[in-house]
Task: inverse folding
């Protein structure tokens, strides 16, 4: 969808909020549903986000990133909506200290997996990831946010964005591998051409 | 060949987060290294798969309607009525002219997606010039305009030196195309305004046929677009084709 927003006005009016915020509606809802894993909760979360954002719109600073601002409100609302969730959002320090993933094994059947568009398997595996990995993967790959935007949204330094993203990708890949290999083996068996797997 | 140092940065490279200069070196390496290019391919496939799988949930029409109603501003019939009516009339005029321009550009329903992109760019150009404040940073100095974009858009770009040219820089503003932030520069040549748009190529969903497409003589505006250094440029205006091309050349030279 193409849209155009103008944040150049000297004053931010309620009209401007609607123009800026509604184009983000689908994306925010998708993100909220991934976080809550429930349609009703996702709707409540999005609604609360918009209400908070509208109330705080006068304090929104021109020239700053509106999208990151909205996502930050949504995420903070999510964190405070579930008792004790904040604790589970804290990523152990040793995870952050790990370097980026270096080696990529050549003989994994990822190509087979994605050629077959096994979307449901991937969705299920992403669903099973801890929230702090799930959210950063979605912000980077689905929302296509820059590291700077993710940093603003999650309120963490860019270095943390990079290391957490790397860990998230590695974890996803590690969890997918056995399922992919099982799937590839089954498919090959069905065809009677299981050599090479 | 030992590629560990390259591979350590492969994710950052594919996320488009490596400085432009290093990006070119990386491009060259990946093109010539079978091991790195295979790894890059695997990672790109994973990225695409996650992107496709991640676009999973859609809000219901009922929920959208409810939300729109809840955030729509309450219209007040007060002493501001006259002002509101004037604003409404102005809006109708703007919308009317935009619609005319839009319909003028889009001559049929079966337009190719390439024409759709042209229409969007033309709309951005027209809407900006119709605005009471077309630029957010007003300066003829490229060393003032370029730094203004720092921190506002997720990439850097160069502005050409206009000495000994007929063009003058009027200023710039942020813009959005396909939900992607970008830079919008406005230039002047013999009383014609020309817009230059710069976006991150990877963030836009552009048709392949757009590559290096030049001008659109049957349309109200001349336009040139190209991709360079990971950025997508659009130059558009009602100036002559030669002027559009000359300004595009200045940008190409500066960015090469």
Result:
């Amino acid at each position: 969808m193409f849209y155009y927003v103008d944040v150049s006005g000297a004053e931010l009016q309620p009209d401007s909020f609607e123009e800026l915020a509604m184009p983000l509606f689908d994306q925010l809802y998708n993100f909220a549903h991934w976080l809550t894993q429930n349609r009703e909760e996702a709707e409540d979360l999005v609604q609360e986000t918009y209400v908070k954002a509208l109330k705080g719109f006068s304090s929104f600073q021109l020239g700053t990133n509106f999208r990151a601002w909205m996502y930050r409100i949504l995420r903070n609302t999510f964190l405070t909506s579930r008792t004790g969730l904040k604790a589970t959002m804290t990523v152990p320090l040793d995870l952050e200290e790990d370097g980026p993933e270096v080696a990529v094994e050549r003989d994994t059947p990822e190509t087979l997996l994605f050629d077959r568009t096994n979307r449901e398997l991937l969705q299920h595996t992403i669903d099973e990831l801890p929230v702090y990995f799930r959210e950063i993967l979605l912000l980077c790959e689905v929302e296509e946010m820059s590291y700077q935007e993710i940093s603003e949204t999650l309120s963490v330094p860019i270095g943390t964005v990079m290391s957490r993203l790397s860990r998230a990708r590695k974890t996803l890949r590690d969890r997918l591998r056995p399922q992919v290999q099982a799937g590839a083996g089954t498919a090959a068996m069905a065809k009677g051409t299981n050599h090479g797997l | 060949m030992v590629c560990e140092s390259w591979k350590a940065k492969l994710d950052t490279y594919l996320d488009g987060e490596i400085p432009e200069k290093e990006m070119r070196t990386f491009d060259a390496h990946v093109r010539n290294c079978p091991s790195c290019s295979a790894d890059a391919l695997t990672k790109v496939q994973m990225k695409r798969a996650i992107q496709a799988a991640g676009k999973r949930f859609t809000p219901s029409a009922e929920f959208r309607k409810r939300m729109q109603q809840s955030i729509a501003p309450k219209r007040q019939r007060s002493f501001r009525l006259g002002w509101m009516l004037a604003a409404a009339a102005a809006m109708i005029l703007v919308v009317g002219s935009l619609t005319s321009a839009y319909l003028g550009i889009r001559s049929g329903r079966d337009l190719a997606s390439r024409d759709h992109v042209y229409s969007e760019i033309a709309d951005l150009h027209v809407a900006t010039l119709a605005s009471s404040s077309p630029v957010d940073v007003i300066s003829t100095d490229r060393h003032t305009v370029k730094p203004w974009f720092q921190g506002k858009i997720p990439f850097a770009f160069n502005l050409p030196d206009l000495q000994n040219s007929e063009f003058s820089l009027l200023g710039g503003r942020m813009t959005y195309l396909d939900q992607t932030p970008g830079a919008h520069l406005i230039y002047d040549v013999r009383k014609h305004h020309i817009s230059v748009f710069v976006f991150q190529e990877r963030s836009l969903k552009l048709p392949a046929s757009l590559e290096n497409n030049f001008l659109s003589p049957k349309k109200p505006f001349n336009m040139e677009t190209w991709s360079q250094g990971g950025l997508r440029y659009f130059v558009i205006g009602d100036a002559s084709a030669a002027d559009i091309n000359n300004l595009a050349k200045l940008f190409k030279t500066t960015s090469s």
User: Anything to note?
Assistant: The beta strands of chain B are 137-138, 168-177, 180-189, 192-200, 222-228, 231-237. Chain B touches chain A through 57 residues (CB under 8 Å). The CA atoms of residues 29 and 195 of chain B lie 35 Å apart. Chain B is about 45% helix and 20% strand.
